[in-house]
Amino acid sequence: MSHLVTDQGTDPTEVEIERGLRQNASYLSEAHCLKEKANFYYSKCDYAEAIKLYHQCLLQAKAVRQLSQVSLQRMARLEQENRDSDKVSPSQTSNPDDVAGTEEAAVPVAGRSRLSSTSRGEDMKAEANEIITKCYNNLAACILKGSSRTVDDYMRAIAYCDKVLEADENNEKALFRKAMLYMKCENYERALLLFKKLPDNREAASLAAKCDANIIKDRKRRNEIIRRNFARAAARETIQQEAQNAGAAQPSEPVAMNGNASVSSFAEL
């Protein structure tokens, strides 16, 4: 990779930018290597090892994205600072013999180098974002296909799908896996809404039908629970009312007089 130089020598800022681009290239290479290893373990159904490697890959790719953003900001600042120096003065084009070279002179070597660096920085950032998207998608798949998962695991995988959908709201794999994860959590209504966003996916259509069936079953179960609760409440109220009625109909206790005697114990003389 060539250094950025001008006629007056090497600009320290441009050298720093170039160094950052080389570092990004190294991080990208490592990210690709880690992703390939993770894919291998995924294909062998070793999801624990695949998850570990996908996370390591994410660290490398995110470093590229962060450094690329910083480099692009520096290049933009450098471009702004040197904008006037990149322009050709009238004296440089006053000679008719120089007219043919005016267009090339208007973009000096340093300017062309910065344009090249900007392009490479943007390309690296885009490549890093693509790797990040694939890692999050595959992390969700690892959790979905693994055994002994908990609801918390599935919710974490749903968050991974959301990361993908933030960048690409129509990502079919993320939508499908998110729907499957909601099915695992028995949240069939949310799963159904996601499956309906994939009208051309036959498997999604089949799973949507299962969601519909489960929603109907859940609704019937809830209605039955509500009916039983009302029946129990009504039965308790009936028992309480009957007890109150029985108490009202029962004769009152005779009033005791003179210790052991009662009104009824007095015989007529």
Automatic annotation (TrEMBL):
Polar residues bias locations: 259-269
Superkingdom of this protein's organism: Eukaryota
SMART domains xref list: TPR (SM00028)
Pfam families linked to this entry: TPR_19 (PF14559)
Region annotation Disordered: where it falls in the sequence: 79-122, 241-269
Gene3D superfamilies: Tetratricopeptide repeat domain
The protein, known as: Uncharacterized protein
Protein's organism: Gnathostoma spinigerum
